[in-house]
Every structure is written in C-alpha cells, then in structure tokens.
Task: structure prediction
Amino acid sequence: MRKLDVSKIMMILVAFMGVLELSVGKFIMAGIFFILAFAIYRNGGAGKYADKAMYEKETDAQNLTVEQLYDAFKDMETPIGRCWIGRHKAYTGDVLIWGPNGFKDCIVLGIQKNKAYIRCAARMDNITYPESERERFEAIIDTTDFEVTPARYSFFAGYKMMSVVLLDDIIHLVELLNSGINKVPAVLDPFNLYHYNSYDGIVFDSEGNSILNADYNTDGAILTLRDAYGSEMARVEATEEKDSYKLYADGEEFGSIAKEKSDNDRYVIMTEAGTFTANSFQAVNRAKLSLNYCITKDGETVAYTGCSAKIIFDDLGKTSNMVVCSLDDDYVVLYAAFQLLILNQYSWLR
Result:
C-alpha cells in the first residue's frame, strides 16, 4: 500500500517557485513562497513539528504523583484497554501505559519535575513491562507477510486517529485532577468503526457488513446513500451558493450542509434532529489520514471522521478510503454523507 503525499508535493513545488523568484532577484516574492512552503511543511502533515504537537503534550502536575494518577485511571476503559504501570526510556521512574493493541497503539503518561508528559508511543522496544502485561505485546500484529486491504487499513487508520483523540482527552482529565476535580469516566472515547473505499463503493461496519451503498453524481445528486435493500437513506444536492448543500433523508428534505465563511475549515449541518458542526483537525500522519473532522451535535462530540483521497493497494490500484469513528450510532448515515461529500470535493487528488 502506498499513499500519494500531496503535502510534500505541494511543499516542493512552492519551494521551487521561491527558488525561481530568488534567481531573478524578486526577493520579497521568494520570501513569501519560502514561508508558504514552511507552513505547508509544518501544518500539512510533512514535518515533525505537526507530529510533535499532535503526539506529545504536557501540562502542570505539581499536585499529582504517578500513583495518584493510577488510582484515578485504573478502572477507566478505553478503546485500547485499561492503563497499567510500566517503564519507558523517555521517562524516569514508573509511567502509566494504555495499550498497546494489535496495531501498536499505545499511550504513555509520566510525571517529571511537576509536569505531566503524555505521548503516543510508536516504538515498543522503549517500553519495559511486567510479566502480567506480556500478552498485550504478544498480540501485536506481525506485518512481515501481512496483506493490507482497505478494511485492515481502515482499522489501522481509525485507531491511529482515535489514539490522538484519547491522548487529548486524557491530558484534559489530568489537568482537572491537578486542580482537584475528578471527572474520570468509567469509559473514555468508546467508538464503533465504519469504513468506505471507492473500489467497493460501500460503507461497511466493523464486522464487515455492508450498511450503505454510495453513488456519486446520479439523478442530479452529488451523493446518494442507499441501504443494503436499495432504499434511499440520504442524498446530498448542490445549491446555487458555493459550499452549500441540501441534505435529504428518506426522500424528504432533512436539512443543509454549509461551510462557514471564515478562516477555519468548519461546516455547519442544520437538520431536523439538531445542529451538527464539523471542525477540522490536523492530518494524522502515522495513518496517512487527512481531511479529518470532529463532528458535534448541539455541542457534544458524536463522531470523528477522516479519509485518504488516494491510496494505492497492491491488488486494487488507486482507491479512496474513509473512516468514521462513531460515538453515537444514531447518526451514522449523516456522518458518512458528510465525509463522503468532503471526499468528493477532493476528487481531483485521485
């Protein structure tokens, strides 16, 4: 499997334009191009700056110890299991560790000099674990002869995206604990995974069941979603206004999707079921996911979505992939309709 790295290509092209401008003495224009190239490098998924900001965080912890954190978190379930106490080469002393799962999703939390440091760990050889946790590491998938399919890639990508979400939510709980507020839930960020690939044209659930068939540009609609029996579940149509769409459910007008006129990549989805917003967040580089959104309903997070506009699988060729990590399955059709609409807007990348 290979992915077209659009960010790197754009960065190189913009930097090349800067060199051309510099060669003819246009220093101001050259500077603008170089700054733009660096911005793409930093924020578009190409550099370690974006990686560090996403995968490593810190906060004050002068009122906490690792033992206190363990007491607070030990019973909290997460998508990668409960925490345990181990060691990591980047830390002095004991740390809390969540995971790893089969895809090496692992979060490490430690305290040093009154600061809590948390990271999504990528290298398992940096971790020292007790015998009681050996089974976790033995369950890691051996990718030597592992065939990568759209479904397997989607699970990999979905868990990588949710690990970033989990890291953010854990560090927020640490901040609250440091302030004397214990709001640790019994379960943090539980989700169900749904995925789509353009080769099949189907949205699948985590068990591999077909739940939606997706058709683009049919009967005047940008996107039509039908269930396994052929009944229309949702339809998206363009309006005369740019970045504004009508949303239909079961053949009836259900609401609208509109991009906000601002510097932020943010959509507002007005429906009969409530107001949804979709706010973008950074590319998840380890999963080659971009065009990612956090979807909220009336202010409460209900899903995280992401996609890769172009991936090359050995047996299938070029495909587009989408993942939906749903925290509330009542609106899965809406999440899929929104993210597939976004994917269609970037069809020029395919």
